[in-house]
Amino acid sequence: MSSVGGEKRGDTGGDGTDAAGPFSFSPEPTLEDIRRLHAGFAAERDWAQFHQPRNLLLALVGEVGELAELFQWKPDEEPGPQAWPPKERAALQEELSDVLIYLVALAARCSVDLPQAVLSKMDTNRRRYPAHLSRGSSRKYTDLPHGATSESRTVGTADLTCESSGQVST
Fold it and tell me: Is 65 helix (H, G, I), strand (E, B) or coil?
């Protein structure tokens, strides 16, 4: 376990905490660093030609499948993955990394600023799932008691456009 800025990082209990405190990610690399690392890796191999949005999405789904396979047939009891043997923990780390790399590559190819998209989505989720109405509930926002907002936003084609050629989408 390591410490950055007074916060502990490393293996945690099932609720994301351990005796030393809550888990936190290291500050580096950033998503932009990951995007650059992957772009450079792909450029050195002339693989950008294969990284159309559909191909990146299918690679992402494949990696999520490999990640899911690590959890398949395992009991749900605690402490969970934190107690897996080192070989399984290493495989978990690799598959999670693959998922993140492909997610970042897909977002970049589609010109989606992931950190800003996350902030926007969390704002939406706060409106859809007010704490006083959704605490302890797994219900979808449309099934919460009255008072929860149900926003319907029409998604335009510009919102879904990905860069599928060498040109940047606008």
Answer: helix
Please compute Rg for the chain using Cα positions.
19
Give CA–CA dist 11/24, Å, rounded. Answer: 10
| pLDDT, tens digit (0-9, with 9 covering 90-100), for 99-155 | 999 999 999 999 999 999 999 999 999 999 999 999 999 999 999 886 555 454 444
The token pair that represents 167 in the structure block: 């040109």
Query: Which residue, chain included where needed, has tokens 């939406």?
Result: 124
The β-bridge partners of 52 are none
Q: Return the H-helix or E-strand segment holding 22.
A: strand 21-22
Give the distance from CA 138 to its chain's centroid: 20
pTM (2 d.p.):
0.75
d(CA 106, CA 117): 14
Q: Residue 111 — left, alpha, or beta (φ > 0 → left; ψ -120 to 50 → alpha)? A: left
